[in-house]
Amino acid sequence: MRRLLTPALLSSVLIASLVLTGCGGRADGSPPPGTSDQTPAGNITEPGGQDPAQEPGGSEDPGQEPGGSTGENPEPGGSGGPGGEQEPGGGSDPTDPAGEPSQPQKPVRTMPNPVRGLHLSGWYAGSPDLVWPLLDWAWEAGINTIVLDLKAEDGYLSWESNVPLAQEIGANLAKIRDLPAFIAEAHERGFWVAGRIVVMNDQWLYKARPEWAVPGFDGGAYSFMDPANENVWTYNIDIAKEAIAAGVDEIQFDYIRYSEHLRDGYNGKDTTAEYRTGNINAFLRRAMEELKPLGVVVGADLFGLTTSVAEGDDMEIGQDYRAVMEIVDYVAPMVYPSHYAPWTYGLENPNAAPYETVYNSMSRALARTEGLPIEKHRPWIQDFSLGGITYGPAEVMAQVQALRDLGIESFMLWDPSNKYTREISFK
């Protein structure tokens, strides 16, 4: 009879699995230092990093120096003010009766209840011959929400932004040629549009503003900014504001954490969980203060094991499940069964037990957040195959059923290829 892994080792292995499938692995595939002892296994991401080789249209080398070519479109003709408060393309800001510039307003739309979503990469969204057939299927299958990459793990924005700092550092890449038009068509088709923003992992900002960063990274695709640096907060909130002006209904923050690579003075043993979670939570509070008046929903992606670790354990990355839920509108834990270590929850192979893995993880989430609305849980679930286990309709629906059995009706699907299992109805 094999013994269960210790909580500390479970935490370490799960971080490694999530990180090395897109939210933190080194570009050369070598295992990261620190708490992780697991080697990379595939290209699945958190819930995010798309492998450019899998995306239509290709991708520029994310390792190029800032200031290089950022796509086929010419440079935008003008720059909006800080915060991206103008619609892309320029124009004057509206003013209030006192003559002061007002915040951009957007038509109030009602978030679906429940939310049934799927992730959409910038490249896929920018390929009409692929994206609209996919969304035709999705609507018929009961999907009502798309989570669109606005700023992904490669540090690029998916459109030609007017945010001055994005232009300066070379972060614009016209994956989507006309963001407002894409969002408008998605709305016409009935979809709620969430915009996903990767915050702390940002190679372009790292290269251009190393003084804002966690030192010791190589400036490549995995390079972390300092979560305590308010300039980093401002840049990402400015991006969110411009996306809101373009029409998104929701902002979803990802990589709101410290790197799992330990760094003295940041998330080494010389800092505390209270210090780390304090910085993450302060960013989210500021984002809520600045974005909620603009009429959007704000959510946060968290590691799956944050639902289950001991109280006060931030996994050395600054994430506290309940604390984050008390700040934002919803929390999206990444409960992909393939990302849990053997014997987690007593399961020999969690990847082979999608129902049990998701049920155990989210039952602990509910216990941890007693007194908070159940609607604030919106997990990411797995629609990809990894680790020798093939996921198809039965495996995807097993996760959905586990959530339903707990009373959780909202969820989002992640498939790095954006293909998704089509033989399913979520209605």
Automatic annotation (TrEMBL):
DUF4015 domain: from which residue to which, for each copy?
Answer: 117-420
Q: Where is the signal peptide?
A: 1-21
Pfam families documented for this protein = DUF4015
Regions of compositional bias (Gly residues) in chain numbering: 77-92
Origin superkingdom: Bacteria
Question: What keywords were assigned to this record?
Answer: Signal
User: Region entry Disordered: which residue ranges?
Assistant: 26-114
Keyword Lyase attributed: no
Q: What is this protein called?
A: DUF4015 domain-containing protein
